[in-house]
Amino acid sequence: MTPLLFALALSVGTGRQEAPESLKALARSLSGQGLAVSVGSDVRGGWELWVESEGPVADATIKRVTGRRDVGSIRLLQGGFGDAGVRWIKEVPRLHTVVLVSDRLTDDCTTPLSGLKALVKLDLNRARLTKSGLARLTRIKTLERLYLYNAQLPPNDLLVLGTMQRLKVLSLPKSVPASVIRRLRKKLPKTDIDQI
């Protein structure tokens, strides 16, 4: 089984060589659950926390980061969590990057995500979305990069994303027909639309 990478990139630059005590305490707490945890500085001058596991992430694990104003990025790459876990993400107000890989995600996960005011990059790999969930994503006015590769989507439902003029990158599954890609490119001429 591939290791789980659950990363929290802290966006607040401290100028210190040592991680904040609150971050070290969170790392110790997660390590106490049998997870391999490391802390280091991120490219934005803040801090990054990596948690690795052989198994899936529980919804309750996501709750552990709620209320942290210094967390800028959450990456949950192993799956196991669902919409119930994602609802806690809205309690991390300064997120700029969210990467979620889980086949348990549905349209319901887009409600808390659409409330993130600083979100620039969103990756919903393996999510099962429809027009309803995609329409909620259009409410994220700061979003510049949207990755939906490996997501399960009715192709024509993707056309609702045509209002997202701020998007710089839109990555879609290879299964999306060329006709839908052409229509999206017409609606989003400044967006780099690719298929993975």
Keywords:
disordered N terminus; single chain; 21% helix; 196 residues
Question: Helices and strands in order, then pairings?
Answer:
Elements: E1 4-10, H1 21-31, E2 36-41, E3 47-53, H2 59-63, E4 71-76, H3 83-86, E5 97-101, H4 110-113, E6 121-125, H5 131-137, E7 145-147, E8 169-172, H6 178-187, E9 192-195
How many β-strands, per DSSP? 9
What Rg do the Cα atoms give?
A: 17 Å
The span between the termini is 23 Å
Helix tally equals 6
Helicity level: 10-25%
Q: What fraction strand?
A: 15-25%
Q: Give average pLDDT, whole number.
A: 83
- Main beta sheet: 9 strands, mixed
Unreliable stretches (pLDDT < 50, length at least 5) are: 1-16
Taken in chain order, the helices and strands follow as EHEEHEHEHEHEEHE
SSE class? alpha/beta
Strand order of the largest sheet: 2-3-1-4-5-6-7-8-9
Gross morphology: elongated
Summarize the structure.
The chain is an alpha/beta fold and 196 residues long. It contains six helices and nine strands.
